[in-house]
Design a protein that fits this description.
Elements (H helix, E strand, L loop, with lengths): L1 H4 L3 H10 L5 H12 L3 H8 L2 E5 L2 H11 L10 E6 L6 H17 L5 E6 L9 H22 L6 E5 L6 E4 L2 E4 L12 H15 L10 E4 L11 E5 L4 E5 L5 H8 L8 E10 H8 L6 E10 L23 H11 L5 E4 L2 E6 L3 E6 L3 H13 L3 H7 L23 H8 L1
Parallel strand pairs: 1-2, 2-3, 3-4, 9-10, 10-11, 11-12
Antiparallel strand pairs: 5-6, 5-7, 7-8, 8-9, 12-13, 13-14
Helix pairs in contact: 5-6
């Protein structure tokens, strides 16, 4: 128990969540296990992400943490909770002093961010002003971290619900969310993120690299949750659950000089023109398409190599023509997966393809046909048990005693 009281508040809350009420044995065993850990290990496990309120008490605790040579070196993410009002200047002085201490002690602090405490503090028309104050504070926080010479590479920007994420120019942000489901055009989210990014570009953050990530809320009652991830380092684009109209925003955010090497599409509706723009690059090396429907444009010409039907999640008539069309657009394409079929291309072997997920079914059907037995008999014959099961012991039953006194009386007569 004495060990628990000397731990940071974050660790105490984590232990309290794991221990049930009145479960003293679990609490004692947890404390004994944590007592054996070294302080740096505890700081690395429990203290890599810290959250502090933008108040006098919160900034005083942050300054105290920055002077702790045991826990401060293991801090990786620092989140400041903002209530949407204009903070006093004295808090910025304490914050900048704490960040200067972190620049000396810690080399792992690479992420800073601002989080909205609650919308109840600023109801009604003050919400827009509160969002503006938090946005301005996020920029000031990043500028303060840069002046303190911290190696900050990402900024977390959260407003109440961490659902909508936009990652652009290497900076991670979370844009506005609404109580109603977000529509598919993402117009407001893109405008907000663009406005934020313009302010960050003036803080010499353009050298980090351009990348973005959408993680948007789907319609209520549906399983679709659209998401797009563009990694400028790996030169990859991963899209899930996108509609045809969503690709206009994605292609607009992609830099014009983008040379994609890896493209992955899953459960998407893509127009021919957008799909053609994605794969018609000389740098494309890998293409993965599953459950994707190609939607025909109104002005689409007939020189496309895909045959009807236009869906890629069913077997097409001529796979050679499909791969020839892809190879004509992407000369360096070496691997491609369309549904359950994979293509591999090398200069020595040429084009080879293989299926996925069908060999086990074919083998099972073949074995069933050869052995001419039912499915249940086949499962018993190929069971994991090598020896037959032992018969169950029958329970002992008492034999009934025969009554012979009546027969004896009849014989006397």
């Amino acid at each position: 128990m004495a060990t628990l009281l000397t731990m940071p508040p974050e660790m105490q809350l984590m232990i309290a969540n794991r221990v049930e009420e009145k479960d003293v044995l679990t609490l004692n065993s947890t404390c004994r296990a944590l007592r054996s850990l070294v302080k740096p290990v505890m700081a690395l496990i429990f203290g890599s992400v810290r959250t502090y309120h933008l108040s006098e008490e919160g900034m005083a605790s942050l300054l105290e943490l920055s002077k702790d040579t045991t826990s401060a070196p293991y801090l990786r993410t620092l989140i400041i909770v903002h209530d949407g009002t204009v903070p006093p200047l004295s808090l910025f002085k304490t914050l900048s002093e704490a960040l200067e201490h972190f620049s000396i002690v810690s080399k792992n602090l690479t992420t800073v961010g601002a989080r909205r405490s609650s919308r109840q503090n600023t109801p009604g028309a003050h919400t827009i002003a509160a969002d503006f104050h938090i946005q301005a504070f996020a920029g000031q926080l990043l500028a303060t971290a840069k002046r303190a010479k911290l190696l900050v590479s990402s900024l977390v920007f959260e407003l109440e619900v961490p659902a909508d994420i936009i990652d652009w120019s290497g900076l991670q942000r979370r844009a506005w969310t609404h109580p109603s489901p977000v529509q598919g055009d993402f117009t407001e989210e893109v405008e907000v993120a663009s406005a934020i990014a313009e302010g960050f570009d003036t803080l010499s953050c353009a050298d980090i690299g351009r990348g973005f990530k959408f993680a948007l809320i789907g319609q209520e009652g549906t399983r679709r949750s659209p998401s797009v991830i563009y990694d400028p380092v790996k030169q990859s684009l991963d899209a899930v659950h996108l509609e045809a109209d969503d690709w206009k925003v994605v292609l607009q955010w992609l830099p014009r000089s983008t040379k994609l090497k890896v493209v992955k599409l899953f459960d998407c509706n893509v127009e021919f023109r957008a799909f053609d723009n994605l794969i018609t690059v000389s740098s494309l090396e890998s293409l993965s398409v599953k459950d994707v429907t190609l939607v025909q444009n109104r002005d689409m010409t007939e020189n496309w190599h895909f045959v009807n039907p236009s869906t890629l999640n069913v077997l097409l008539q001529d796979w050679r023509a499909v791969f020839a069309g892809l190879l004509a657009r992407s000369p360096n394409l070496s691997s491609c997966r369309l549904g359950q079929l994979s293509f591999h291309y090398t200069n020595q072997t040429g084009v080879t393809w293989e299926t996925h997920g069908t060999e086990n079914v074919k083998k099972l059907l073949r074995d069933l046909k050869w052995k001419k037995c039912s499915r249940l008999a086949f499962k018993k014959a190929n069971s994991v048990y090598s020896e037959p099961r032992k018969p169950r012991k029958k329970s002992f039953k008492h034999k009934k005693l025969r009554c012979t006194h009546k027969k004896a009386t009849k014989s006397k007569n």
